[in-house]
Amino acid sequence: MFAKRKFNYSSKFVTITIVILFSPLVLSLFNLGIQKTINNKENVRLSFRDSYVGREVLLNLNKSIKEKLFNSQLIRDRAIDAKNGWYVVGDAFSNALSESKGLLVFSPNELNDLKTILHQRKSWLDQQGIKFYISIAPNKLTTYDTLIPITKNNRLKKMQQLDSLCQQLGIPFINLGHDFEKYPDLRLFHKTDTHWNDQGAFIAYNTVINKFKKDFPNKKFKDFKIEELQKTITRTLQGDLTKMLKIDTKEEFIHLKLDTTFAKHLKEKKHQIPENYWKKEVEHYELRYINDKQTKKLLVFRDSFWGYCNPFFIENFNETLLIWDYVFDKELVKKEKPDIILYELVERNIDYLLDSKKY
């Protein structure tokens, strides 16, 4: 009844189809991609990161071929295998590698813009009677510099440039990794994840509290010792970096916990989620804690790093409000009337400070 159709596939059509489907695999397989010159001696080879149909299938096939046939690994600019179980984030995330090595810094024009923005912010907060702090959580590669043996540039890194600028403006600046070198025997970051662990976060907490003690001599702050905390280890963490590399592995997760806590989490939300909010976990946008045994109110504009050290901070304030966003919301500040604002962000996101719209 129906005549069968005959399809004639030309050799050109077949060739083009194969090239489209497998060229990403071939390019990455032989490490053809973006070669980034770091200095006269070192190169960092970064493979492409485009999205395309069948990407996950090809990446998994690529990974399998490289490991089994070439005894190599799929290395991209998103996550880098630093060997010995350690992984670091690459330049796909805000040029984290290059900034950690001091290869990319603020330009003079950017510094001038940043100076104007921060001066306006401090002046406005001074009028409100609010103490303002800027704090930076260091990149893993900043803390463990030798994981990637690339010679650093001798000029000031972005975090150091910001520190110097804050000193000029009279804004307290806190490098949250300032005291890390005092604990050479402690692992302070997850090996397979971008974040610090509870030990790194606890040391960062003490760094901030020591600064607060000097600025608020009449307020009592909790002195916790790391030896007195409950420490447990579970092998439960699937790091975000190994997930990127399609490596199915888990590492030891170090947990630190206080014996007792007086702070209570309030589930009531007072603020509307901003339009086009960039985080998927909208339930974490606003977190509020009350502690009747303490005084003063702390407001933190923060990112994911703060969650690790927050259990210690909430023991020090009558009210602690966490806003998971880099947007400095003046109206929110007016409504909340905090005594202290601490703006925290990870080093690789330091450029967010340049967005005047967010300030």
Commentary on this structure:
With 359 residues, this protein is α/β, with parallel strands linked by helices. 32% of the residues lie in helices and 19% in strands. The chain is built from ten helices and 13 strands. The chain has helices at 11-29, 55-69, 96-100, 108-128, 140-143, 158-169, 198-215, 240-244, 306-313, 330-336; strands at 34-37, 43-46, 79-83, 86-89, 131-137, 173-175, 230-237, 251-257, 264-266, 286-290, 297-302, 319-324, 340-346. The strands form four sheets. Strands 6-5-13-11-12-10-9 form a seven-stranded mixed β-sheet, with helices on both faces. Helix 1 crosses helix 2, helix 4 (108-128) packs across helix 6 (158-169) and helix 7 (198-215) crosses helix 9. The chain is globular. The termini are far apart. The relative contact order is 0.12.
SSE layout and pairings?
Blueprint: H1 11-29, E1 34-37, E2 43-46, H2 55-69, E3 79-83, E4 86-89, H3 96-100, H4 108-128, E5 131-137, H5 140-143, H6 158-169, E6 173-175, H7 198-215, E7 230-237, H8 240-244, E8 251-257, E9 264-266, E10 286-290, E11 297-302, H9 306-313, E12 319-324, H10 330-336, E13 340-346
Parallel strand pairs: 5-6, 5-13, 11-12, 11-13
Antiparallel strand pairs: 1-2, 3-4, 7-8, 9-10, 10-12
